[in-house]
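Anyone opening a protein record will find just a pair of labelled lines. The record below illustrates this layout.
***
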Amino acid sequence: MLTIIGFAALAVTAVAHAGTLAIAAVRLLRRPKRPDFGDKPPAVSILRPMKGLENHLEECVATSFRLTYPRYEVIFCIEDEDDDAVPMVRRLMAAHPSVDARLIFGRERVGANPKLNNLVKGWHAAKHDWIVMSDSNALLPPDYVEGLLVRWGADTGVVSTAAAVTRPEGFAAALECAFMNALQARWVLAADSVGMGYALGKTLMYRRAALDALGGLPRLAEQAAEDIASTHVMREAGLGIRLAQQPVRQPIGRRRLAEVWQRQVRWARLRRSGLKPIYAAELLSGGALPMAIAAALTVAGAVPVAAALGFAVLWYGAETAVTAAVGWPVSWRTPFALVLRDLLLPAVWVGGWIGNRFEWRGQVMTVSPSGRRAIGAEATDG
């Protein structure tokens, strides 16, 4: 009986693995749709929160000025005038005087979420009803706004984007690619393709009047993460959550293994805090369980060693092939990073359950035991 259950579990996980790979590949490789706005496309405000400098930041911020959309403004939100990013933003604004761009400073607390506290001044200052919150470390493609608006429908509450990391340097960065691209981006894109969209913090586009009618930014501060809060708010209102066809890309450069671990555990705690049923199933999303089952069947004598090894080669070979086909980074490190990711996945999953504290850009935050909100944030020296 246990052998039958093992084979059934292998079959189910293999189908899910192949299915999500196929759905994501078809989505990413098909020709993107273009919106038809007629003579007057809606004006859009893009808010980019910033704090300090990081890898490739100037290149990412520069893409704000190269969008093909005809009617947009960009507002850079920074808390302190002496922030290290300020000279770079001012230099880029001066180099692109034809783009309607502003840099605004200040703090206004709406909750424990530091990103929202930074963004609220931009929300109030935005000229237009369509507002996009866009992380500063993302490379915006020229058709960024068009790709968001084409996904908006009459019943939509928020349009978001997945994130794909690019330009990894070293093995730790390749490991981050294995987590974010081949696993996380693949699954959220596949889920969105079958009508199960989740808001993701890299990009969030709203109609201001619609969100304000639902409680505005204070509603998004009810959770530790604004994307999880957006998912709850829109679903409670009966509104749809959709992802753009393509992820935005984030160049990451060099990473340390400790940084990758800390980031994955932080995100795990956030997902566990606000999306417990989905998070509980995340352990099944990678190769850890099927590889363990294949090994157990081999030890039990039900499967030859060669067959178990062939199963692993097909599993990771398909993942590597799709990753390469859609243009995500692939190197000799990729297969090893995929295997290490799946070895770490159970530990990350457990880490998501057993802690409530995490650090984000120098702020230590604590998720309430109920998981409904962040109950505190304090500055650190890091």
Summary: The mean pLDDT is 90.
